[in-house]
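Troubleshooting: if your tokenizer reports a length mismatch, compare your output against this known-good record of 378 residues.
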Amino acid sequence: MKIEPFLTEQFFTDYEFSAPYLLASSDCETMSIAELLTLAGSSLADLGQVTLGYTESQGNPQLRTQITELYESVKADDVVVLTSPVEGIYLAMQSLLEPDDEVIALRPAYDALNNVARHLCREVVPWNLVATDTDWELDFDRLASLIGPQTRMIVVNFPHNPTGFVPTAAELDRLVELAREHDAWLFYDEIYRGLEFDTPIPSAADCYEKSIVLGGLSKTYGLPGLRAGWLVIRDAQLRDELINWKHYTTICPAAPTEFLASQALLVRQQLVDRSKSIIQKNLKLCGDFLGQFPDVFVWRRPRAGSVAFVELNLSKIGFDSATDYCHHLARQHGIVLLPGRCLGSEDRFVRFGLGRQSFETSLKAYSNVVSATISATG
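Known-good structure output:
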């Protein structure tokens, strides 16, 4: 069976490593291995002592214990260390879904959260975030109406990519109540957890016994090159089934990655504070820029995370779709914005990434393009 094209990664393949102005990156500013080790009080010599043999399939016990410190009630046995975060999506859905199952998936969202399930089961039903004039909101009445006897799993990601939406604690409780009422699994992608601008909400791992929680170091901690991630699964039978699937994919995590991930978790708060400082600066720059062109952009300020989802008034910039516009920006101006269509949204949205130190320079280049476009169209 073929799987749908991975539109987000295909788009970045075309432009991410060639265009000079990246405005759509979802990760936060990274650092070198030497910088990370110095921050953690370690050294390249320590990394050099890591042996390159097989590691434990479930993950290094010490690393799994460190990961539990991010949660309230999670034990080391509940954690499965991954070879990359996206592997967790694939393994969880392979382990749980059967051909007659239905999945309800929040949209817009990272492609894999919808496409892997659609590849494996009968139907993936979209649960769309609702855009208001200035924000986004969850429609729980709609979710309740979508859940049926074949619903096996509800898939969400918060803080949300691409809108930056984060539910309140009461809304998280409502989500868990609906999942529990219908005995549905809750796949909860928390890869941006820790980047809340206000009071953080609890992890779903601490709220619901049938949650499968995805975490990792790529976004919040600015270490995507490590490919370090994990799943929290409190159900022992499912965890064993998932590890069996893991034996058919990557078998075990990479030893150097586990060592570096452990070092990163030693200084996790410093990494989070660094990321949030960059985001807050760029968030203001982005809001000020979009405010200069109110006829072109609709700004729904994110509540968390390192991304924002901006609506375009396409008639003002002379394009029929955000996809065409983004290809034009990348090819003609070297500016990369991600079209919302890649994430399952209407083709009038684009994603901005707020986590890079180069954001200000890239935004200035884009501002010049927008100003020239407005002047040319009158």
